[in-house]
Amino acid sequence: MTEPVLSVENLTVTYTVGAGTFFAVSDVSLEIEPGRVVGIVGETGCGKSTLAKAIPRLLPEPPATIGSGSIVFRGTDLVGVSRRQLPMVRGTGIGMIFQEPLNSLNPAFRVFDQIAESIRIRHYREMGWLKSFQGGDQPFDYSKPPDTTTVAGSLAKVIVPSGAAEEAVHDRLATRSQFREEVLSYLRLVRINDPETILNLYPHELSGGMRQRIMIAMALSEKPALLIADEPTSALDVTIQAQVLTLMKELIDEVHAAILFISHDLGVIAETADEVGVMYAGRIVEYGPVAEVFRDPRHPYTKMLLRAAPAHYKEDGPLSTIPGSVPNLSRPPPGCRFHPRCALARAVCRGETPPLAPVDANAPADSRHIHRSACYFMGEVASLP
Amino acid sequence: MGRNPGDLVLFIGKRLLQLIPVLLGVIVLTFVCTHLKLVGLCNAVYPHASPEVINACNAKYGAPLLTQFVQYITTLFQGNWGASPLGTPVYPAIAADLPATIELVLAALFLMIVIGIPLGVIAAQYSGRWADHLVRIFYLSGWATPTYLGAVIAAVFIGPALGLPSGGEYSTVVPPFPQYTHMSVVDAIIALNFPYTIDALEHLILPASVLAFINMGIATRMTRASMLEVLPLDYVRSARMKGLGEFWVMYKHALRNALITTTTVLGVTAGGLLAGTVVVEEVFDWPGIGQYAYDAVGGGGSTANFDGAIAVVIIFAIGVVVANLIADIMYGVLDPRVEWR
Amino acid sequence: MRRTDHPVLVFWRVLRANPLTLFGFVLVTLICVVALIVVVAPHVLVPYGPTQETGPIYSPPSWAHPFGTDGLSFDVYSNVMLALPLDLGLGISVAGVSLLIGGALGLLAGFYDTAGKLGSALSVSVMRVTDIFLSFPSLILALAITRVLGISIVNVAIAIMITWWPYYVRLVRGEVLSVKHLPYVTAARAAGVTENRILLRHVLRNVTEPLIVYFTLDIGTVLVTYSTIAYIGVASKYPGPVPEWGSMMAYYQSSAPISSYPWLVLAPGAAVFVTVIAFSLLGDGLRDILDPRTRRAFVRSAAHEPPAESASLPVAAVGSSGADAGGDGRVGTPDPGGGA
After folding, report:
1. In a domain, B339, yes or no
2. What is the ipTM of this complex?
3. I need a surface site. Which of B2, B85, B153, C112 has the fewest CB within 10 A?
4. Domain membership of residue B22 as a residue range
5. Nearest residue in B to C148, CA atom
């Protein structure tokens, strides 16, 4: 197995608001390897968006606090990185696509300026003109030319079609026209038909789907080692959603970055992700390869979520729902957080929190990529209606 | 789609046309307000004047209102703005004083922008914390300081303490170079006289600072409010995720959008700045229109100059209208979502 | 819209949210109490009369003369205290009358914007006149008007009022226009509620709060304008039976070398400053809650609502605080940005 790009260990994020504390993310562990897509799925308010923003330390602290755990990105624990060093991790290290295409582009700047800014940041770091992140035992060094054996290098492969890597870095962005060409290449990468025109437009002159493409181009233009997509299609119309999703799927194949894909839509996750984590009330309750989890769910919540998905609703008859409501995260229920709504709940579920244990009893307990479930009665889940 | 520079010319032209009714209204209003009390007007205005002056005044202001207005507006456009009781014509005096006031107001505006706006950004960045409270105390102090108090403290206590002069435009009454623009710093620069440029700046800094301090509140407050509106938006997060440092995130991405609202408010402060010049110029002996206004309304017990007062009121109103026009145009230029129509 | 919070409770939460607002409130209360005492029982706080000779001239601050004495041996402290009711009263009355006149006109201009031919014609003419008035720096116009009316305290007050009401027209009209098309007002109209009832019940109630805030800030602004006119010498004269802070400063500045006797100008100056900043701290703090842009920050720090970042938190997690937020939301439902 290759070295993971990102490895999140027992991460807990809380919000302190007034006198109350909200446990938005509790004890979450994740690992993403280069070229892999990990999906996180769950209801609104399950903490998936908080998790996505906590990884690049984008949450305002306070009110958010990273209570415990570590976020190791390429060998460096981001929890310990100082506020002043954080920008060096972002962009070229971790890129992000946001949910709202309406607001995620700055309304005051033209498309060209926004993408050019990203490219300039990456270029300056590659050239060593801007300080890059130094810290941890595996420092980033953006002054090095793209190396096709690494993640960043394989990204560069898409962008720089040929030539010696060393030469490419030094000559590629020397002139204005080369710079412009670089910006255009990213617009073409996200399948924009008329990039020369789009370049000079302001975000408000573009449609939602177009803006989201620009957003994707902007994130990719920094060649991030890890790309976090936080519900990138949720705010779009259904038809546009399909287009952007198709684009994302194509790009995933072309760009061999590690991707964390957040969505509330099981269908989207099923189409894009390699592995999926199902979140409920701040915890990952089930994790594993997408096909396996969706075919044979081993947590009652996953099972009910799949049943409630509109795609599942084929025959006449009532749309299935999950009884009860999402728990109050300032006073989460003890033990398994799903037990108040669970048909399988017994006394033991109210006691200790069930660990995320392998479904296959013979599998090694420490493996991160096999099918695991946090349910004491995972064997009985299949018997549920 | 898009906006081209040709549309901008049309946009500005239309805004200029919209000025005309407002300016006409200003003149009518000035006329009505200053001719409110016709009985005994001349005695009230020139209490200590000689009978000749009173008679001349009565001849001028005794006619029916409409006749007076027609007469008033024709002379106004002829450049004959009346004269002071001592016979000094109003128009040349005001024309000579105007540049100095423009210089002072622009210097104050500059200070308001370079100090007031960053303070608003800091207050928003640390909203609810001590930096925010300090900024609030600072701008409210300016707000609560009457112009005369600020000017006197600066002229009498702060100026000497810092070794700054607190009167006039230059250390000598007449500078050794021609005054083309009647703006002290600009004239010194045109004459390439470096010592005099420094001297002029030293004379400008105190009155401009007082004006800026007193009027800073609106700019700071508005910047803070717009920044608080902008900061939680996704594009600020996008900028952070690009790997930009906090400085660029704040001052390039967030402030660029927050400024759109702040600009419109800066236009509004023109009224405060111009009104402030009346006292500030008097205290600092700045040879501008504010000092002229102070004397014209009978400030400090001097003889009132009725025609001069009306002229100043009109000039200041034009100043406010033009400032708002500029703010309006700036708004259109800064916000790409505004169509130039 | 049901009130879940008593207005007094909301007001208290606003004060508690920002120590400066609370400080301003305490100071305003104190100043008003002192002004009342000076009017009702002057001897409690004011040892000397306005033009009573006390013996030493230019004596520095001491226990007998907290702000010293001036060149005519008048007690500066007594004069500063005696000026308080006048300055404060002028601020409140001029702002109050402007509020009533401007508020009424603004209400009409906003509400009958599209109603009938006569109504809209009235509305348009009110707004044109307002626009023209707003083109003048009010200080300079008030100075000119005072000059015409003749120098007296009442005339200065009238002159300021003439220049002051348009600000209220603009504020109230903006508020009314923003409230007018809110869904619940449209719903009331659709339900057959008469226009007058809508005007009184819905619009007036939503306009009241921004008006109170603006009025609080305005008292200080009027006070500064009045004392500036007095300083310029176009109002009451000092020394005289009715002392006033601005004219006191002008007199001291011209009669004595103030760098030798700084207390003479600092005492009346500080009196204006303290009075105005008290109202400003209170008004500015209150305005933070009304401004939809700054309200979010307030709600975040004071109420029990999760921050914007945690928008994904389940509603149930917020618990009872949903009602709190609703209460605050009501305070600022109309968009004051439109008017202010």
Report:
1. no
2. 0.82
3. B2
4. 5-77
5. B34
